[in-house]
TrEMBL record:
SUPFAM superfamilies: P-loop containing nucleoside triphosphate hydrolases (SSF52540). Gene3D superfamilies: P-loop containing nucleotide triphosphate hydrolases. Residues 5-243 form the ABC transporter domain. Belongs to the ABC transporter superfamily. Signal peptide: none annotated. Coiled coil: none annotated. This is NitT/TauT family transport system ATP-binding protein. GO terms for molecular function: ATP binding; ATP hydrolysis activity. It comes from Hyphomicrobium facile. SMART domains: AAA. It comes from the Bacteria. The keyword Ribosomal protein does not apply. The keyword Nucleotide-binding applies.
Amino acid sequence: MTNAIEIKGVFKSFDGKRGRNLVLDDVSLSIAAGTFVTIVGASGCGKSTLLRIVAGLESADGGIVLVGGKEIAGPGVDRAMVFQDYSLFPWLTVAQNVLFSRRLSANKYDNLALERDAEEKRAASLISLVGLSASQDLYPSQLSGGMRQRIAIARALMSKPSIILMDEPFGALDAQTREVMQDLVLDVVEQEGTTIMFVTHDVEEALYLGTQVVLMSPHPGRIDTIYDVPLPKKRDEQMRIDPQFLQLKRTVMERIRDTVGLSLDRSAVGSIEAGA
Ligand SMILES: Nc1ncnc2c1ncn2[C@@H]1O[C@H](COP(=O)(O)OP(=O)(O)OP(=O)(O)O)[C@@H](O)[C@H]1O
């Protein structure tokens, strides 16, 4: 299978209070086309920075990123990004927000009307795919957080990107809405065949969504472990309580704690309570 994303030897530093802060240290990662890869790791390990570099929103100090075999030189229509804060235009309706990211090709002015018609149809079908047909004339302020994030996903899909980069997209949602959104994004991805790179703090979310979970360690940010998720492609709620799933969740959480030196020795807590 071809790799949709190839990250090769990426370095990145930022200026910090005590001089240059090495945030990504020789990070390499290959993401196969059509896969759903989730990135987890302790706060500050460079997950968002890595995602922003792949998006072309941040440049690397060293190394290269290839998308579809070509080195990136900035943002491109082949990659769409979904952030935690929805980033919708408040003055546009649901339908207008989705249509906004249409891919108008400048050399097709002859077919403009035809193209606009096709784009409106695609926007309507994406709005229907995310379950918001009845709300297409509403404005973002009239919608719940979950509904806004559905529009953000529909909008990201509008330009038919081969890759969607998601940075904690469900981080601001309540637990129930979050689970609904997870299933929605899986369905959408299956239908559209998009490759996903998804950053999250939530290990359960990472395992439920990802075909692979990439764990990064901090100071400096490095790839620590890549876990293959041994679940059937079609996920369902029952898998969240599957013993194998729960065991892997525990393993990943413990490894994240290890990477920041936070492993809990509970017997030590017991001895403190006993006054030892
Ligand atoms: N533009 C910037 N300027 C200076 N430092 C930055 C900048 N962006 C990120 N950093 C620093 O780089 C490090 C990694 O940040 P990043 O947001 O990539 O981590 P993260 O793993 O996504 O964190 P979190 O899980 O808390 O969102 C942090 O120490 C952060 O303070």
